[in-house]
Each structure stands twice: as C-alpha cells, then as structure tokens.
C-alpha cells in the first residue's frame, strides 16, 4: 500500500502530530487526577485525530471518495476545539488537584491547534468547483494581481497597494447560512435547535448530571450539519438520500431524548446547572417537536401527491381497457 510520508512533513501533518501529543498529555494528566469525564473526552479526540492522520498517510481519502473528507475534518476540528475549550474552562474552575489544572492548560493548547487546523482547512476547501479549476482560477487571479501591481508602480511611482482577493473570507461566507435561509422558517428552527442543544450541552458538562452530555452533543452536531447542508444546498448533491425523512427521524428522536433527560435532570438532581439543563432541554423538546410536525405535514403532502400521480396511470389504463372491450 502506498504511503504519503510527505504529509507528515507538511504544515497540516505537523499540526496533526502536535494535536495528538497535546491530547495525549492532557489524557495522562486527567488520568492521574482520576477525572473520568475528561479522560473519555481526550481519549476520544485522540483516537479521531489518529484515524484522520492514518487516513491521509495511507491516502484512503482518495479511495473513499463518497465522503467529503476536508469538510469532515473541519467539523471535527471545530467541534473538538469548542468541546476542549469548555472542558478546560470547567477544569480550571473546579480543579482540586494539580493534575486537573495541568490537563486544562494542555487542553487549551490543543484547542488552539485545532482552531489553526480548521482555519487552514477552510482556506483549502473549494465549494461547488473542481479543485483544478479553483487552483487555476487562484493562479490567474494571482497573475492578474501581480500585473496590476506592476502597472500601478510604473504609472504612479508611488503607493504599491492594490486590491487583492480574499479567498478565506469567501469560503467562510459560503459556509455560513445565507440571510434568506436564516430568515426562513426552517432556517430559524435549525438555528434554534443548534443554540439550544449547545446550551444544554454546556449546562450538562458543568452539572452533576454529566452522564447525559452525549445526547445534546450529538443533536448539536446533527442540527449544525443539516443547517450547513440546507443553507449551501449540499443535500442536492446526494439525491440518493431522502433528506426530509432523515430530518424527520432526527427531530422525533431528539424530542424524545431531550424530554426524557430533561425530566431526569430536573427531578433527580438538585444543582443549578442540572436544573438549567433540564429547562433548556424542555425548550429544545418543543422546538424539535414543532420541526418534526412541520416536516410530517410536508411529507404527508408529498406522499399524497405521489399517490395521486400513481393512481392516474392506473385509472387511464382501466379506461383504455373498457374502450377495447366495447
């Protein structure tokens, strides 16, 4: 199997190795301090980073082309950075031994590396364009900018500044939801689901009911992914999936899960963070229930139209058979 050893010497390869080293050090610190929640988080992210590094070294990303690996890597880096920042801040505020404090410091260093990694990936991602075309366009833009600068120097013999393109900002604007989608009913529901899931996640992390922290995190990631897919029309590329049905199942499961964990958090735990997580969980339950009710109505109308269209050919076929018998 061919291996890409040069990736380890590249900028992103060095970043991946540094992320693994800081995550390993944070894992050891939290293990010494006997903090199971922090141990599981750092171990999971270390494993994900190692698998992504192995994917790039073995060039499996070029074979498994049905996934958009740069986008998956961006999501992992962003989510892991947010997760580690929240985890490290909680470790700072609640530490009783030095191992937890050291793990929080190293966790913040790892979060910084993940932010740099996600920024570099944002610069390399090209949306709705082939990579070669994007490279050629960037080269042509660079040549045009160079020619403009040279001509500007010879004409004015003065200031050397010239307008230049800013592809990182263009990529960031392309990833963010558009104003039209954010103002729509579906866009507002998805934004509310993302915000409520993240707030519930932070409250559960800071509470004694930390066993439920996985549920809001998964719902947060799923809602954020669908917000990106719908706003950038990413779902139109994969027409083999029935996106409304998947969205309906997501909302149904999320409303049930949030309702159950919110009741448990409010009834069995007495600390303020658990109560707050339960309240936000109940609000998220209402939002998810409203979302799946709207999706259900849309699916019912779609199936009804499909049934009518299917009945029409059979009706025409019956009429033709009657005319033949006459």
Set out the fold topology.
Elements: H1 6-9, H2 11-33, H3 36-57, H4 69-94, H5 98-124, H6 131-156, H7 167-175, H8 179-183, H9 185-206, H10 214-231, H11 243-268, H12 272-325
Helix pairs in contact: 2-3, 2-5, 3-4, 4-5, 9-10, 9-12, 10-11, 11-12
Short description:
With 326 residues, this protein is mainly α.
Structural overview:
There is one protein chain. It contains twelve helices and no strands. Residues 127-131, 133-143, 149-169 and 307-317 have low confidence and may be disordered. It is flat, with a radius of gyration of 26 Å. By secondary structure, it is mainly α.
> How many β strands by DSSP?
0
How far the N terminus sits from the C terminus, by CA atoms, comes to 72 Å
Mean pLDDT across residues: 75
Kindly estimate the percentage of residues that lie in beta strands according to DSSP.
Answer: under 5%
Shape: flat
- SSE arrangement, N to C: HHHHHHHHHHHH
Q: Sheet with the most strands? A: none
Low-confidence stretches: 127-131, 133-143, 149-169, 307-317
As a whole number of angstroms, the C-alpha radius of gyration is: 26 Å
Number of alpha- plus pi-helical segments:
12
- Name the helicity range: over 70%
Structural class label: mainly alpha
């Amino acid at each position: 199997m061919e291996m890409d050893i040069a990736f380890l010497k590249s900028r992103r390869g060095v970043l991946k190795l540094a992320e693994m080293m800081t995550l390993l050090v944070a894992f050891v610190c939290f293990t010494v301090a006997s903090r199971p929640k922090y141990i599981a988080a750092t171990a999971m992210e270390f494993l994900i980073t190692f698998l992504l590094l192995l994917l790039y070294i073995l060039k499996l990303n070029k074979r498994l082309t049905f996934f958009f690996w740069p986008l998956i890597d961006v999501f992992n880096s962003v989510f892991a950075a947010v997760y580690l920042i929240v985890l490290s801040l909680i470790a700072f505020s609640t530490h009783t031994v030095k191992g937890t404090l050291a793990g929080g410091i190293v966790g913040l260093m790892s979060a910084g590396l993940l932010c740099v990694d996600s920024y570099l990936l944002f610069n390399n991602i090209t949306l709705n364009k082939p990579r070669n075309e994007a490279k050629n366009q960037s080269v042509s833009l660079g040549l045009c900018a160079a020619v403009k600068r040279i001509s500007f120097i010879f004409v004015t013999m003065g200031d050397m500044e010239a307008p230049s393109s800013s592809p990182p900002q263009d990529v960031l604007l392309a990833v963010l939801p558009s104003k039209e989608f954010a103002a729509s009913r579906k866009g507002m529901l998805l934004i509310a689901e993302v915000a409520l899931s993240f707030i519930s996640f932070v409250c559960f992390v800071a509470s004694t009911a930390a066993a439920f922290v996985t549920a809001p995190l998964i719902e947060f990631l799923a809602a954020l992914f669908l917000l990106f897919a719908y706003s950038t029309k990413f779902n139109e590329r994969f027409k083999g999936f029935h996106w409304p049905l998947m969205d309906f199942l997501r909302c149904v499961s999320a409303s049930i899960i949030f309702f159950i964990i919110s009741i448990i958090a409010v009834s069995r735990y007495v600390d303020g963070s658990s109560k707050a997580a339960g309240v936000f969980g109940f609000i998220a339950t209402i939002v998810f229930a409203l979302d799946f009710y709207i999706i259900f109505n849309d699916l019912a109308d779609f199936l009804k139209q499909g049934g009518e269209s299917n009945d029409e050919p059979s009706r025409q076929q019956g009429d033709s058979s009657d005319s033949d018998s006459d």
